Amino acid sequence: MPSQFDSRIERSTNAKFPAEKGRYHLYVMYSCPYACRVLAARNLKGLEDMVGLSVTHPVDQRTRPDNENDQHMGWTFVDPEKTPSVTGMNDMHYPTTGCIPDTVNHVNFIRDFSTDIVRMLDSAFEELAPSKFQLYPDELGGEIDASNDGIVAEVNRGFFTHALASTTEVAQINLAKFFTTIAKLDEMLARQRYLVGNTLTEADVSMFHTLIRFDHIQKKTNEQQLTQFQNIVGYLRDIYQTPGIASTVNWDHMEFAKVNRLPDAPASEGPFVEYSSPHDRAALA
Known about the structure:
- GO terms for molecular function: glutathione transferase activity.
- Residues 58-80 are annotated as: Disordered.
- Helices cover 37% and strands 9% of the residues.
- By secondary structure, the protein is of the alpha+beta class.
- It folds into two domains: 24-124, Glutaredoxin (3-Layer(aba) Sandwich), CATH 3.40.30; 138-284, Glutathione S-transferase Yfyf (Class Pi), Chain A, domain 2.
- The longest helix has 23 residues, at 141-163.
- It is globular and about 55 Å long.
């Protein structure tokens, strides 16, 4: 779906939206894997003091709860009185509702596609960022794109078709298909530390935030478990222990969102992976 927010932050000081400290603000929801990918990019680049952050409630709420005819759902904040109002394009006022993540400057909404925002944070702030970490290095761009369109998309699609299945029977069928993809990923990770090259990239951040959500919702009674795939377990520990990543994970918000969507479902039994335990992934570098 095309976005009405398709502007870009650029390095040039003469750009319409130049990279500047304190000019941009990020709105994220911890229960959303796409928003957490962007939050991870902000942290890995060391932009915490340059790009502001507001965290929404883990579940969309009715934006006009007193109007029974308006069923629109959108962002809410734990303390909305402290959240700055936002003026969008053409001086139009926008309540804090919509698709997340969003990057906003003091005048306009900029972008709401997670991959675009990740790459803007990675490139536009390169000269200002304390960290020289690159999520999308030019020399690996083609391989990262192939990974995103390949194994990352397969795992993401498998997770959502299982998690959002309409019946238990369909969920089990989709789960079996998902683990076929997981086995392929585990075999890949037996040979290499990361999905692309010898460094963590945006492909790994995307994969991580999908896999941990599956770990959260999987059941002890499942015939197959994520913990049976030791290369994936080590991979998840490796990424989780990378500075800036652990703070993008909020298990409580994930559970709150799941319970809201499936109020009759039992409480989640995961996560099962011990994310803070040692790993030996560096040996593959």
